[in-house]
Amino acid sequence: MAKPLNIGMIGYGFMGRAHSNAYAKVSHFFPNTHTPVLKALCARNAERGKEFADKWGYESVETDWRKLLERDDIDAVDICTPNNLHKEIAIAAAQAGKMILCEKPLAMDVAEGEQMCEAVEKAGVVNMVWYNYRRVPAVTLAKQLIDEGRLGRIFHYRANFLQDWTISADVPQGGEGLWRLDAEAAGSGVTGDLLAHCIDTALWLNGGMKDVNAMTETFIKERTHQATGEVTKVTIDDACAFMCHFNNGSLGLFESTRYARGHKALYTFEINGEHASISWDLHDLGRLNYFDHKDDSLVRGWHSVHVTDTDMPYMGNWWVPGLQIGYEHSFVHQVADFLKSLETGEPAHPTFRDALETQKICDGVLKSAAERKWVDIK
Amino acid sequence: MAKPLNIGMIGYGFMGRAHSNAYAKVSHFFPNTHTPVLKALCARNAERGKEFADKWGYESVETDWRKLLERDDIDAVDICTPNNLHKEIAIAAAQAGKMILCEKPLAMDVAEGEQMCEAVEKAGVVNMVWYNYRRVPAVTLAKQLIDEGRLGRIFHYRANFLQDWTISADVPQGGEGLWRLDAEAAGSGVTGDLLAHCIDTALWLNGGMKDVNAMTETFIKERTHQATGEVTKVTIDDACAFMCHFNNGSLGLFESTRYARGHKALYTFEINGEHASISWDLHDLGRLNYFDHKDDSLVRGWHSVHVTDTDMPYMGNWWVPGLQIGYEHSFVHQVADFLKSLETGEPAHPTFRDALETQKICDGVLKSAAERKWVDIK
Amino acid sequence: MAKPLNIGMIGYGFMGRAHSNAYAKVSHFFPNTHTPVLKALCARNAERGKEFADKWGYESVETDWRKLLERDDIDAVDICTPNNLHKEIAIAAAQAGKMILCEKPLAMDVAEGEQMCEAVEKAGVVNMVWYNYRRVPAVTLAKQLIDEGRLGRIFHYRANFLQDWTISADVPQGGEGLWRLDAEAAGSGVTGDLLAHCIDTALWLNGGMKDVNAMTETFIKERTHQATGEVTKVTIDDACAFMCHFNNGSLGLFESTRYARGHKALYTFEINGEHASISWDLHDLGRLNYFDHKDDSLVRGWHSVHVTDTDMPYMGNWWVPGLQIGYEHSFVHQVADFLKSLETGEPAHPTFRDALETQKICDGVLKSAAERKWVDIK
Amino acid sequence: MAKPLNIGMIGYGFMGRAHSNAYAKVSHFFPNTHTPVLKALCARNAERGKEFADKWGYESVETDWRKLLERDDIDAVDICTPNNLHKEIAIAAAQAGKMILCEKPLAMDVAEGEQMCEAVEKAGVVNMVWYNYRRVPAVTLAKQLIDEGRLGRIFHYRANFLQDWTISADVPQGGEGLWRLDAEAAGSGVTGDLLAHCIDTALWLNGGMKDVNAMTETFIKERTHQATGEVTKVTIDDACAFMCHFNNGSLGLFESTRYARGHKALYTFEINGEHASISWDLHDLGRLNYFDHKDDSLVRGWHSVHVTDTDMPYMGNWWVPGLQIGYEHSFVHQVADFLKSLETGEPAHPTFRDALETQKICDGVLKSAAERKWVDIK
To answer: What is residue A177's predicted lDDT score, i.e. its pLDDT?
Structure first.
């Protein structure tokens, strides 16, 4: 029988649902020695918390996360709060000896992130950050192809994360469900929300960055704040683009925005190597595009790999070839790998320490944009 | 609190998993007055049944489906057996007053199907057949666009279901996990397995057929039978194509095969109307292609509709715009609609009676191929 | 210096322009021992003929094709008239010892086609039919890949030719520029106009057919005749679909229509072989899609081959890799190959005799549709 | 009768062919009051010049471009030489009172370009630069849609020009056919060769730029020089990326490289506006992608506009809907517009003065990359 892993979840918004679904499904498809048990949900609003807990089968509800951390029946804490609460909760959880699964980005800035890393490492608790896109099978496959050396020397890396949901000036900032538009809660706009994903993948696939050069823009300067009803200055970045040099000598170009009409969640990346290139996008997440110069010249062209065969990463655990999975499955895979890590003792990545590297780039990008100059990454 | 709907599942193969997953997920995303409870699993092999039941949380295991039907704590029976058992189980279940959810195709032939329809109608039990593709959101959207009259008079309907998994002569026929290659268990080859899906969708979207004209082929004439180890004649159709006239005057062209190299499960359809056309395929199941002649001529072209917005069918219950769902969700939707039907009293389609129409076409197609002539559908 | 090949062109409609452009361009890109000289244009309407001749540089104009055939300074006659004139002109041209380039389809029916073949063969004159799609580089590449044996045993061939220009009931039939809608001038509707192209390619790529089974439809039964202004019965087929068995054991499925909203000239074909599959379409004529099961399974997928590299058929004579050519270039290639055939003595295909095979299929298809039964091809 | 426009072409490389083809074809498809006459070809190598002239029908050959400028029978001079000769020839041609059609980029730098502008304006001669991509019909259509205001306020512009032909370290630099790899002849690498195209289109579609911030890279530092056989330092930029602010407040992101495996000539751009977005790429040059938020939400998606209908820019002069044209046609259109400008007196764009704006951006980009800082464009 699988050992129970008792989960205490803090927060119940979009990510609360995505994680709960992953915990509920994982043992049906990825047998492991551990199986998640939804022990407690923590929500400031007791009524809403109860409703969510009932729907998903959480056994109990807390309204104070400190109480949750005191409970002996909780093995792991899942932090799904706005970004400005990550640090305090994570450090306290580490001190309480809990495993920690923390939503991305790790922290509000590098200083916070370093404190968090120190705390988990000092406490020796298992930790992981929810950069889920690494575990979309097509992205995992990209990593595998790169690690096999198929691309050779890398020349270019480019990534975009394009959305369009804040184009209307009528969208308010801050408040219920809109904390991502409030710099006090989110730290930054698209940089921490979207580019952080692109950066995590890039560091994983292509290694560290040497320096960055960015520009940011806030297209709509003032919006009504939902909490107060007042029109105030928008404090987040609506769009952010940056150039960089990777340590391996390749050039990077990154862009994210919430003002790209026609794209809801179009995360894309492309890597050009000496022998082969790879591209992928989130709107067709089940396909990986691959070009190999070593193909016979008469049939050389981009392969559209429908990542559903049983020998593809994670896919042997799902249906049969040709049948697609979706966005939510990336979270299931991350939980599956987390559970496996408990068995093997090998950490599931990205750990807090891994995610701190992404934080460094984000901070560098924001600094570069503010100072209009190249910023070295240390 | 939602009312329990006690499920007794017969069979635990591929479809057993797909249905179990749907029952497990549906209440997390589609709140209804009823919620499925996995009461019992029925499997001839007790050990394997136990393993499956444990994984999915079935409360008990039966090895004789008749026993299952006798139990008072079972409200609904889900038939996931090979096709040759559908009739006997369904009729007994109807007589036992159970609701029935039956895998497709309904029966081995029209005669069986008629008996089944009579049985459920006489018993007055709720019944439904798992033609799940109707509830891929893009397909449901196609239905909605057609019903709004956007296409106008229909001229053409064409559909394919292309696979490639039996090209190798080394694939055995019959036996464990391979009953679809054995006519005694399956009734036919691609006709009942694949074309039946295409036909169900077509009848739903474009109405009934007047006549059909088909050809079938068995490319590899003999294969080793898994059960006996002997090389015997292959009795199923490897490929089947047919032309037809729909009652609305449009022309139909259908094809299915397991010998189309490069296509794992490529179900596609296209409908050409006077004003607009629609196409869809299962390999990119989250997109609907739509062409509208009424668009301004300068920007007229096929729309690639990424069916993820919250106003799309079923999508408001899942994630946020831009984030895809997959194959398995069509089953969740079907369960959700089934549960809703219990509340409204309006049947969830396709019922047995609906599925009998598909059976009539399948029988007509096989007859036409055998006799090399047009066959009228009555 | 290249030897002149004196051309006498009969007709000056759409195909007259396409051929004239090919003659004008060919020597700039495909040096041969012969070069076309636009000696004479033949048009019943002298004024229009003059205008066309001036624009394209024809040295003279004739209004009677018999006169053209009598001229000693004409080496080759290009027949671009409506189909019902092909036979008479071609036979007379053969008797006059002229080389003949005839538009497709070869004739109104097999009987005519046979007379034409006999005439050219008896006279020993060089002859060719303008099935131009063979020489779209992507299609020529398909032929090359098949001939190399890459596909292995062939299981399926399917082709469509979809247009939408006659959906409106207001389109008149017959008359100026509309002879394709008049059975007296065209012989048939989409069968001779569109399916003939699909059949020519299919016979070339996949060999002969054993039998066919077709249906045709005329969606709009009556239209105003342009010449008379009267509403009369439409005599052509608006749509035609057929199934067939190829001699190599593969199954074929063909369809053409002028009622497929959203498709202007969407000629497509797909071939599924044991090892590999190929598909192509005219709307993206510069790409060939290729799937090879022998590819490493991790990167196996459809290749989108952008047929512009210099080692692709004909492409070394044009621009540089990445830069596309268009529809008109297929005619240039056909002229280039025709000119080369004069040097080598090897006929440029399809000859009249080759095109007669396509005519046999067309006749069989129309007969099958009329009689609602399978028709053997002899 | 059309008036002759006597052309004297200087150079006979890739662009010499592209222009000659355009002159030869234009009057067959675009009737104008003027028609080009290929009067003289100028080539330093007399033998090769003769061969080219014979193939294309130039009436005479010169080996000294100064001689060509002295001839009274030349109306217009077409400069197809390496970039470092543009200035001297253009100024002399202006002084000789010739119309000038000059290949892009205009000059080696802004200083040269200004002298050239002054010369043609002082002389009052008609002048144009061959930024041909403006006249790919899909690109012209994009301009039309933007000018109609369909996109609303523009937020983002991004463009790439990706090639892969210099990845091999064995490609020599400089010399015959390779002057684009030699900074002395070309001025810069991808910046003047590829980015210049992207910039010209961007300025045309989206207006001027305020500032730029660039990085360049030379991946392979030394190559054999073809002329000398010696291994010397590579002086051009292999790759260049830059960020910018447009005057209209939108953000720009540009990249070009010759190290993007899998892309032969992939020029792409995308523009995101408040209401609508547009994208295009050169590998599928006959399609324009268009997304309009005002579309009915159920069918909202990217339109793939197959730019072949007769109401599309330039397309009414070619074939029929559905039939594509290619790369070379952009030059035909540019000549057609040039000829029309002679009739109307309205200049055909881009003029030298227009092209100087592109030169300013190129210079700013190279300066920014060298100094690693933002550079204002004046």
So the answer is: 72
